[in-house]
User: Fold this.
Amino acid sequence: MANEFNPEHEWNEKNGSIRIANEVVGVIAGIAAMEVKGVFGMSGGMVDGITELLKKKNLSKGVRVEVGEKEAAVDLYIVIEYGSKIPEVAIKIQENVKRAIESMTGLNVVEVNVHIQGVEFQQEEPPAQPEKRVK
Assistant:
């Protein structure tokens, strides 16, 4: 493609350099991971023995990233939906995260490590009961 991003583009040499912050790559990785069917949420780590679950809020918290000049390595801390096939979900996460980071940043993703921190059972919420009025 003619408009495809190329990190080795002449812009770097003639006009200055481009540096992508770890947090930016972390957000891209978190969003890409959450797009995969079977992912319940991102895990922010252990808090008082209980895994802190991060859904749509601050997706980079469940991600650790190392970004070099041309390469990136990613560690994702994931909570899986109960009933999902963990190896299949993990492979899809790796593929989606690698594709997203490489296409958006031009960095070469050398590894995507998926750490399954838990399994979450999603219960359907009971239907709302109409309020009873006291006369």
